[in-house]
Amino acid sequence: MATATQAVRLDEKVTQFVSKPRKMLINGKWVESASGKTFPSYNPATGEILAHVAEGDREDINRAVAAARAAFDSGPWSKMTPSERGRLIWKLADLIEKHSEAFAGLESLDNGKPLAIARVADVPGAVDMFRYMAGWATKIEGNTIPISMPGSKFLAYTLREPVGVVGQIIPWNFPLLMASWKLGPALAAGCTVVLKPAEQTPLSALLLGELVQEAGIPDGVVNIVPGYGETAGAALASHPDVDKIAFTGSTEVGKLIVQAAAGNLKKVSLELGGKSPNVVFQDADLNASIAGASLGIFFNHGQCCCAGSRLYVEEKAFDEVVEGVAAEASKIRLGPGVEPTTDMGPLVSEEQLNRVCGYLESGLAEGAKAVAGGGRHGDKGYFVKPTVLVNTHEKMKVVREEIFGPVVTAIPFRDLDDLVSKANGTVYGLASGVWTRDIAKAHHVASRLRAGTVWINCYNVFDSALPFGGYKQSGWGREMGHEVLELYTEVKSVCLPIS
Ligand code: NAI
Ligand code: MG
């Protein structure tokens, strides 16, 4: 069953972890699913089964929500001081760091990403997120408010209280990192959680669950229920005892989450899809722009909600930049994530392979030309060649829809207004990039782009302190930074006459 015997030696814990069926974490106990069913998680580099995992469904979600409810309403979590909470979150970060190699190995096998990337991006990013949020636990404050009601003098203040039991549904592109973006702030705010990892990549969240226990976070505070979206995910999103649902994934499912949440009007935050423009002006440092445009689309195989998937280049620089990005694409070495020579691994699943290849076929059929890549790589595993498409225009599906693969469309622009209207001509508004040496122009364009993030002369710069989220159909709310605390707290106004 385990395929952890590949080119590099993986951490011992990885082999051990995938060697037996994994259970789910409910109320501090590792249990089988109520139905007894399991589901397979695959190694996308080979298409073989990597591990079997307990398959959660409505009954398991009911049990997990009941545990989270009890831990929130009357359990030790509700009585813990902010400082104690912060210390436990910090301890969890230390434990993840201690097991960095195991996490990197699991992430690489389960998701397909290069081990080297998991080591420098996913794992340290998750550690940092927990540490950053550990610091916030003691700093969630209200205000004192001046009251103008005649007659008496009033003292009025606000409290920021935890929103309650939170359901968190995460995707497969950064499995551990997304778990940290969700769990970190929820725990800092004093919420309890039911986390549902993506069915494609449940393993790192389950290892995280072991460390949650080792850190001493009380039973029932973090429950982890792997399973499919239409069953476990839908049951969590519609559950009447869940106070808030936090979701990252497709815009399509985001809309289903909103409908499912309507029953008890639970709070909802959403990090959804994107079709982010990466804009190169001819006065930019073109070498840096070429490197940035490549990183913008090819990082994580294009499986990033913020991928710079629409490259807009000012006419005079178009050929040079596109040739440069195509040359970069052609240099990328594809292979299993655990091979040391691999720059880019497989897509996460056969479904994603077919989806991305379907987009490529549709683009080429509509007249696009691939100046690099253009299709599947090999016939084993789910590899797609890094692809640069030209001769594309705004009506094509490949330019309008999120592909979520290593595919960029390049389109020239004439002037600033032309650029702004093209860049904003999407239902999404997650991220964007601007490359220019003209500082005023950079800020001017930044002010006109309808997107939650604008990277100027850089791309994919993330920080636990920097808010991230979408305009338009890219989502509701902001994750990271202190902004995220608003998603996990309610504001209570308290007012009394004092004279
Ligand atoms: P998805 O949106 O179906 O899956 C994301 C999460 O939602 C998973 O945990 C899944 O189990 C859960 N889910 C699915 N249906 C659900 C439902 N009805 N109720 C509750 N939870 C549900 O994304 P999928 O199918 O894996 O990928 C399809 C496309 O979605 C990708 O090609 C990409 O365009 C986009 N996507 C965007 C992500 C982002 O970070 N914004 C991440 C993953 C996918
Ligand atoms: Mg997998």
Describe this structure as you would to a colleague.
The protein has 499 residues and is of the alpha/beta class. Helices cover 38% and strands 18% of the residues. It has helices spanning 12-18, 58-73, 76-79, 82-98, 100-111, 115-136, 175-189, 203-215, 229-238, 251-261, 286-298, 318-331, 350-365, 397-400, 416-423, 439-448, and strands at 24-26, 29-31, 38-43, 48-54, 154-162, 165-169, 192-196, 222-224, 244-248, 267-271, 277-280, 310-314, 369-372, 387-390, 407-413, 433-435, 455-456, 475-476, 489-497. The strands form 5 sheets. It has a 7-stranded mixed beta sheet, sandwiched between helices. The protein has a 6-stranded mixed beta sheet with strand order 8-7-6-9-10-18, with helices on both faces. It binds 1,4-dihydronicotinamide adenine dinucleotide and magnesium ion (MG).
Fill in the keyword field for this structure:
499 residues, alpha/beta, Aldehyde Dehydrogenase, Chain A, domain 1, Aldehyde Dehydrogenase, Chain A, domain 2, 2 domains, 16 helices, disordered N terminus, binds 1,4-dihydronicotinamide adenine dinucleotide, binds magnesium ion
The whole-number mean of residue pLDDT values reads 97
In angstroms, what separates the terminal alpha carbons? Answer: 74 Å
Based on helices, strands and strand pairing, what is the structural class?
A: alpha/beta
CATH architecture of the largest domain: 3-Layer(aba) Sandwich
Helix content: 25-40%
Looking at the structure, the CATH topology of the largest domain is Aldehyde Dehydrogenase, Chain A, domain 1
Q: Biggest β-sheet, characterized?
A: 7 strands, mixed
Which cofactor or ligand species appear?
1,4-dihydronicotinamide adenine dinucleotide, magnesium ion
For this entry, what is the oligomeric state of its chains? single chain
Uncertain parts: 1-5
Strand order, largest beta sheet: 13-14-15-12-11-16-17
Q: How many domain modules?
A: 2
Quick one: overall form?
globular
Percentage of residues in strands: 15-25%
Assigned CATH class of the largest domain: Alpha Beta
**Total number of helices:** 16
CATH homologous superfamily placement of the largest domain: Aldehyde Dehydrogenase, Chain A, domain 1
Strand count: 19
Compute the CA-based radius of gyration: 23 Å
